[in-house]
Design a protein that fits this description.
Structural class: alpha+beta
Number of strands: 13
Helix content: 40-55%
Distance between the termini: 28 Å
Number of helices: 10
Radius of gyration: 39 Å
Shape: rod-shaped
Length: 493
Amino acid sequence: MRSTFFGLDIARKALAAQSRALDVTGHNIANQATPGYSRQRAVLTTTNPYTVPGMHNSTAAGQVGTGVQVSAIYRLRDSYIDYQLRSQSQYLGKATAENQTLDRVEGIFGDLKGGGIKTAISQFFNAWQDLSRDGSNETVRAIVQQRGVAIADMFRHVDRQLHDVVDDINRGIELTVTEVNSIVDRIASLNVQIQTNELGGKNANDLRDRRDLLIDELSQQVNLHVFESNGQLSLVINGVSIVRHEAVTHMKLADAPDGDGIRQVVWVKANGDEGNQVNATSGRLAGLGSSREKTRGYMDKLDDLAREFAGAVNEVHKQGVNLEGAPGIEFFVGLSNSTDLKDISARHIHVNELIAEEDTGRNLIAAALKDPVTNEWAKGDGSNALAIAQLRNKLLFLTDPADDTSGTATLEQFYESILGALGVDAQHALHLLKNQTLLIGQLEQRRASVAGVSLDEEMTNMIQFQHAYNAAARLVTVIDEVLDTLINRTGLR
């Protein structure tokens, strides 16, 4: 037989359950703008009925309900959407890094808006063309001298800025590695806290939200696979487990084997030694690595252009004679004023210091040619200047060095091929960035539809639980009145 206070116990459970549901609703409202928060739901279920069916208890219909309880507090999350979002975030991280770098490199070359290397080359050859009309003209000689200094400065300026890009990428890779190591440490710490809290059968919802937010951040940095089984979480990159419950594997920077000054990312072994290289295929780390290689490729092509340009000008210049009747010298030199062509690059190209000398250098410009028969020359002759000017249209490069049948290219055409390749790479990176941004936006909307907090929905729930709580409180009053009648108003007087 049930207790006289049976109904009061039901009311007590109702008050506790509705109060807890209101607490959960309040928690949702409070965290509506919290990054990574997943809305929670209090699951209300009936308590065990009276009596519970058993060997010595009746199993017939008519069991009496004993009230309500909050059996669990779940967070609403779709793991499949999480998987899709993290997979696409990796590509977004790579596209973002590549787009930022290539957009900067495009601005460095500058010829898309004029005033870059192509313009400087054109002005240099135009000056020689003007000198060919009067090889003794001091003003034009000064212009040739200045144009030579300008084109060398432009090569060095562009190369220096490209080196700055590579240096910034290296710093970006270092910061990314530091961030990845920090994130995996925090995830491992949360793994321990989550397991400790869930040993009693409760759900560590807020801790799981924090961990998922960190995993989302990590997925933007590297190509990541997430595995969870029986509460144990593992994060894997290319077969290497960077997090296994509380155990972590860190990354570090190491000198590349080829000794070119570029540092590579490697795994750290348990004993602290350097392990294999981290071959990131997506994420910001991969984007920075690929951007660095592409930038260095443009630098190599710029070196080829500077070397071929200087070599062609020097070869023709040495065939002429200067105003003093002496044979021409190398117009451009390389590292440490070296006349060896292998020492000339975009970073190390200068006008010969003898020619660059402000007062006497212009006299050493070999604009004339000696007569091959009489071995005489005219002071105003500009034949050699014309030959140098005509280098502009000389086919000096293979369009594709790997294909001998591809035809040849002038200096300007070769430079345009560099700009063309850069433009294609930059446009491709921009398209990928736009596509991934759009896709990520759609996935985030889908996640928000499941895990996001709707204030309208929470207000509706709040009113529902409030009314239920008020009804339970009224039930307490009614039962109190019933008991008062039973205890105080019945019996003999």
